Amino acid sequence: MAAAAILLCGCTLSAALRHDEIRSVWGPGGALPPPTVYFATDRSPSGTGFSQSWGGVARCGRALVPVANAVSPPAPDPVAEPIACDGPAEMAAFAGQVAASARARNCNKVMLIAQGFNLTFRIALLHGAQVAMDSQWPCAVLVFDWSSEGRFNRYMADIERSGYSVPVLIGLLEALQGAGLETEVVAHSLGARIAMAAVGAVCSKPRPVVGEMILVAADVSAEPGNDDFGQLLKRDAPCTRRITIYASEHDLALMTSRSVHGGVSRAGQAPLADMQYRGLGIDVIDASLAPSDVSGHAYFIFSYEMLTDMMWTLHGTSVAERAAKGGLVCADWSGGVCAAGTGRYLLKVAPQRQPDFGQRILTHVAPILLPLQ
User: Fold this and answer.
1) CA atoms of 319 and 305, how far apart (whole Å)
2) pLDDT digits (tens, 9 = 90+) for 190-248
3) Which domain holds residue 100?
4) What is the domain-level CATH number for residue 259?
5) DSSP three-state, residue 135
C-alpha cells in the first residue's frame, strides 16, 4: 500500500491536474475579509492568467482573492489585474503600489510568500490569501510565484525553473526596500532556496533587508561537511531581524527530494539536526506533529497550530513567549534540556490531530522504497 501510494503521487498530488479548493482552517467568523493579494511571477501569460511555462521576464499584478471558510460553499476563482513591472522603473512603481496598499492599512510592512514546487499560479494566489487570512496578517500581501509546472512528478524540472526566478526576486526585494517597506518573508519548500539566495544577494552590508524570515519545509541541502543550508544561513542571518525554521520528520516530499539528490539530507526534514543552527541565532520549531496532506509537505496551510504560531512569529514574539501562550511545547533531547533553556520546541498538537498510523508507516517505509537514502 505504501509503495502504491508513492507511485501514484505523480497523478494524485499534481496541482495542475486538479482544481483544488483552498479553505481557511478556521470556521465561520474566524477569517478576515478577502485580501487583495499582489503578485510577481516569471510565468508566461495565458489568456487572463498564466501558464505552467517560464516566461523569462517579470510580470506583476493584484487580485482580490476570496477564500472559503471550513464550512461555506466554494469561493470563486480570483481574477488577476496586471500591473507592469518589467524593468527597474516599472518594478519600482509596482512596489510603490504595494507600499500604498500597506500604508492604507496604517502599516509599513508586506508579507512576501515564496511558493514551493508543484503549484499553479491559481493555487499560489489562493495559498497566499489563506496564509494571510489564517495568520491574521494586517498588512500588504505579495505572492512570489515562479514557473512551477504544477506536477508532483516533474520535480527536477521545477528545480531548474526555480533557479531562473532568483534575479526576479532580487529585483523585487530591492524595489520593496526602495519603497520603504519592511518585508517579512514566508518561504516554503523550493521557495526557501530561492528566498535565501535572493536575500543574500540584496544584502551588501550586515543590516536587515528582511524582518522575519520564515523557512517552512526548506528543500535545501544540509549535508555534514558540505552544508549548503548552513552556509546560506550564515550569509542571510545578518540581513534579517530573525530567521525561523519549521521542519517535519514526516515530510514525504522531502524524503523523495533526498533520494533525488543522492541521499543528501534536506533541512526541512531534519528538526533535530537543524538544532545546530541555533548558534547563529536561528529559531527551530519541530512541526512533525502538525496535520498535513498525504505528502506531509503542506502542513503550513493545513494546520491551525502552525498558522497560529506563524502569526506570533510575524509579530516578533519569542519562542519562549509563544510556549507560555500554549502554542509550543519544550521537550528535552540529547544535548538539550528545557530547564536549562536548551530544549527543542515543538508545535503543540492534540493527539487526534497528529499524523495517523498510515502516515507514520509511510514515514518508515519510504526510505526502503527510495534506496538512495
Assistant:
1) 14
2) 999 999 999 999 987 767 789 999 999 999 999 988 899 999 999 999 999 999 999 99
3) 2-369
4) 3.40.50.1820
5) coil
